[in-house]
Specification:
The complex is a heterodimer of chains A (314) and B (342). Chain A has 314 residues and is an all-alpha fold. Chain A is built from 13 helices and no strands. The radius of gyration of chain A is 19 Å and the shape is globular. Chain B has eleven helices and 13 strands. Chain B is globular. Classes of the chains: A mainly alpha (314), B alpha/beta (342).
Chain lengths: 314, 342
């Protein structure tokens, strides 16, 4: 954390970015429009939901936890945002409502893990179902469709240009969170908790409050991701983002995090998310069928972890 | 003590087994009310209109109808919902099978226990008693004709659909392609998804599937627009596809530059027809699906099989919706939905 970085650590951090570069070069050679401005915008916007959720998930995984409810939280937040927009609340209020919903859901996870001492895997497996069911209930098992006038300002957050507000906002938040993770006491404690929970406790780190904060933060980012999905679809769909938690976890792991906790970075997670989205988008452009894309991304995940193992052993 | 427990558990198991074998707990509710279920292949506003038809028939024919929308619309979930219904006890089921071919053995099993009919998408080789739906091939041709008339000079066309495993999706796609390419009618034709097809001034550049994932549907449309800067037409084969294409076109600033033809009558599609952003849509009249499904099931469950259509297929007529008849279609739709409200 902070200070000088060894050469192998530098390599480890740069690997996901290098992979993005390689994939971009490959697809550009196969299909020149890949690096065109229109497609770059598409890739960025298609990356956003997973990237946003991955920022929060990085904190959870670094702390040695896991959050399986992220996809359901995204759907729930998206539905709430759509309901707010539908009742004439406007874009800002809709995004805020999504943020609040996600944060609340995250805090429930935190309370279960830190307060009730339930293993994160089980606690968030439970809330995954609860949040999904809640989303369907609120939406009346339908998609929530606000009028075009109400969704237009929200859609504007993700459309038009490379510098769409949602893209810039995500970048700004990523920088902020990367600093929080590497340069603040909160970040240092998170790494310490993930490296060795017992030692962290003995060192006087307030483990329970820290866990509550970490899961709350993950929920907040899932909420924002849900708002972006709503902005992209212009409808609140309670069945959206099904299985998204696995994409989010994959992005964080491809970015160099270990599920055992104690390692992982925000830039790595973002690169992981970008890598997965570029692969899917590039395959679409070149005309590779969806099932091959799924196999490629699966293989990429395993390869990323295997490479990491080899390097740490060497 | 242990022996007693053992005995109790064996008797319980035997009782449950007997119940299952004899169908106890299933069948008609007390008083002889016929109970039927109407099941979709997922959640969509399209199915709300169909459900309204089922509700209207529920009142008219004095039966009890349970409307079930599997969510998410996957084969597993759909099978589970059917099994749940069988356990709770129904007399008849109308289902839109997600994968008619592969679900045939399962559907045969269901047909052995309750009156089974299909609607919207067929499982032709199963033991279902009849199928209610539009001729999807003809509907596809009607959709292709809309686009052909909007693009007299032809051009590149891309197709978008949830999945091609469904019988209705395959036939619709083939109808659109055959119409654009000016081929003679042949509902049994089946071009491979990645086949390169050209004729009559048109080139079919791609058919993209999204597994009913809305974000994927939009990404597919966005990616095609990047890859084919000269794209002339987009066809949305499922209700949500054309709205997703429109969203992508808005993002790319190409609304109007690419002609869109659609299926079904989502609000977004009808609004876009009014605004001239979609050339037209082919409505399957889902209200009729719901209404006729319940009408036929009600009679079948009461022992009257004279309601079965000749050849086992009840074809409903598709309606081609353009700016010319939009107002009338909307009024009819509103009236239909209002009549189905409980």
């Amino acid at each position: 954390m902070g200070g000088r970085v060894s050469r192998s650590e530098l390599l480890r951090r740069l690997a996901p970015l290098c992979a993005v570069g390689c994939v971009a070069a490959l697809f550009h050679a196969l299909e020149p429009s890949f690096l065109g401005q229109a497609n770059l915008r598409n890739v960025l916007v298609q990356t956003l939901p997973v990237a946003l959720a991955a920022i929060g998930m990085t904190f959870v995984i670094v702390s040695g936890g896991i959050d399986l409810s992220v996809g359901s939280q995204m759907a729930l937040s998206g539905v709430v945002a759509a309901l707010v927009a539908d009742s004439g609340g406007g874009a800002a209020l809709a995004v805020l409502a999504a943020l609040a919903t996600g944060t609340l859901a995250g805090l429930v996870n935190g309370a279960l893990v830190a307060g009730a001492r339930i293993v994160p895997f089980v606690a968030t497996l439970g809330t995954m179902g609860v949040a999904r069911g809640l989303a369907k209930w609120l939406a009346g098992e339908q998609t929530v469709v606000p009028s075009p006038e109400e969704t237009a300002p929200i859609e504007a957050l993700v459309t038009k240009s490379l510098t769409a507000p949602a893209v810039l906002g995500t970048l700004a938040l990523a920088v902020l969170m990367a600093l929080a993770l590497r340069r603040t006491v909160f970040g240092t404690w998170t790494y310490a908790l993930g490296s060795n929970a017992e030692t962290a406790r003995l060192c006087g780190i307030p483990v329970r409050r820290l866990q509550l904060a970490v899961y709350g933060l993950a929920g907040a980012f899932a909420g924002l991701a849900g708002a972006v999905v709503f902005a992209r679809l212009s409808v609140g769909d309670p069945t959206s983002s099904l299985g998204a938690e696995l994409d989010v976890i994959a992005a964080v792991v491809i970015g160099g995090a270990s599920l055992a906790g104690g390692t992982g970075t925000i830039p790595g997670a973002l690169a992981g998310a970008l890598l997965m989205a570029s692969l899917a988008n590039g395959c679409n452009l070149v005309g590779v069928p969806t099932f091959v894309q799924e196999m490629l991304i699966g293989a990429l995940l395993v390869a990323a972890v295997a490479l990491d193992r080899l390097r740490t052993r060497a | 003590m242990h022996k007693t427990l053992h005995l109790v558990s064996i008797s319980l198991a035997a009782f449950v087994a007997l119940c299952l074998l004899s169908g106890c707990g299933g069948g008609s509710a007390p008083g002889g009310t016929v109970r039927v279920a109407y099941m979709s292949n997922g959640v969509d506003p399209f199915w709300d209109v169909a459900a309204a038809g089922a509700r209207a028939a529920e009142k008219e024919f004095g039966v009890e109808v349970e409307v079930v929308f599997p969510s998410p619309g996957t084969i597993d979930v759909q099978r589970q919902k059917v099994q749940d219904l069988l356990v709770r006890g129904i007399d008849g089921l109308a289902i839109s099978p997600i994968d008619g071919t592969n679900m045939t053995p399962f559907l045969d099993e269901v047909a052995g226990r309750v009156k089974l009919i299909t609607h919207d998408s067929d499982a032709p080789s199963s033991k279902r008693l009849c199928f209610i739906g539009v001729d999807n091939y003809a509907a596809g041709r009607a959709c292709g004709k809309l686009l052909r008339e909007a693009l007299p000079n032809g051009g590149q066309v891309a197709l978008f659909v949830g999945r091609l495993e469904q019988d209705n999706a395959r036939k619709r796609r083939q109808g659109v392609i055959d119409e654009l390419l000016g081929r003679p009618a042949d509902p049994t034709r089946n071009d491979a998804a990645d086949a390169s097809l050209a004729g009559n001034g048109f080139t079919i550049v791609a058919t993209r599937t999204d597994d009913f994932v809305a974000t994927q549907a939009k990404s597919n449309a966005e990616d095609i627009l990047v890859k084919y800067p000269d794209l002339a037409g987009m066809v949305g084969l499922f209700a949500y596809n054309a709205p997703a294409c429109l969203e992508a076109l808005r993002g790319a600033g190409r609304v109007g530059g690419v002609k869109v033809a659609s299926f079904d009558e989502q609000d977004a599609t009808l609004d876009a027809i009014a605004a001239g952003e979609v050339v037209g849509t082919v409505s399957q009249n889902p209200y009729q699906y719901g209404y006729h499904s319940v009408r036929i099931l009600a009679a079948l469950c009461r022992g009257d099989s004279s309601v079965l259509p000749a050849g086992g297929v009840l074809g409903t007529d598709p309606t081609v919706v353009t700016q010319a008849n939009l107002a009338q279609v909307r009024a009819d739709l509103d009236a239909a939905v209002a009549s189905g409200k409980r």
